[in-house]
From TrEMBL:
Belongs to the cytidine and deoxycytidylate deaminase family. It comes from Halomonas huangheensis. This enzyme scavenges exogenous and endogenous cytidine and 2'-deoxycytidine for UMP synthesis. This is Cytidine deaminase. The keyword Ribonucleoprotein does not apply. GO terms for biological process: nucleobase-containing small molecule metabolic process; pyrimidine-containing compound metabolic process. Gene3D superfamilies: Cytidine Deaminase, domain 2 (3.40.140.10). Substrate binds at N50, V51, E52, V53, A54, H55, Y56. PANTHER family: CYTIDINE DEAMINASE. Keywords: Hydrolase, Metal-binding, Zinc. Residues 9-136 form the CMP/dCMP-type deaminase domain. Its cofactor is Zn(2+). It comes from the Bacteria.
Length: 147
């Protein structure tokens, strides 16, 4: 796979799912809908939208999708897609980078697409969160640092 992202095309089914889940976002305060789609190690897809609440401690789309993946019994991320409402790079926030890292492997790819689903940028987990703190720092096994 190429490091220069722009000539990589995203699967139509994935774009459709991203646009659909972004459309379900509950964002009355920010008006900034975001959708996330995760592909787990088994190849299953999980989607999530951001969910705001009146006290402003809302849930990000990535966190929402991770919750769906964990609830279904999956533990490892193969691919991550994030779609925002505009042409700007809607990258995962700091909190979500740490959440994704918990379930990422060295091969996990994170792709951020524009509002139409065109690829803007792709990252490895290490690029998205360099020198990260993870389960192995607490003496736990982690898919990021095997062997
Ligand atoms: Zn976030």
């Amino acid at each position: 796979m190429s490091e220069s992202a722009n000539h990589e095309t995203i699967d139509e089914q994935i774009i459709d799912a991203l646009v659909k889940v972004r459309g379900r976002a509950y964002v009355p305060y920010s008006d900034h809908p975001v959708g996330a789609l995760l592909i787990s190690e088994s190849g299953q897809q999980f989607v999530g939208a951001n969910v705001e609440v009146a006290h402003y401690k809302g849930l990000c789309a990535e966190a929402s999708a991770i919750a769906a993946m964990i609830s279904a019994g999956e533990r490892q991320l193969r691919e991550v897609y994030v779609i925002g409402p505009g042409e700007h790079l809607c990258t995962p926030c700091g909190d979500c980078r740490q959440r994704l890292r918990e379930f990422a492997t060295p091969d996990t790819i994170i792709r951020v697409v524009d509002a139409q689903g065109q690829l803007l940028k792709r990252y490895s987990m290490d690029q998205l969160l360099p020198d990260s703190f993870g389960p192995e720092n607490l003496g736990r096994g982690s898919a990021m640092h095997q062997g």
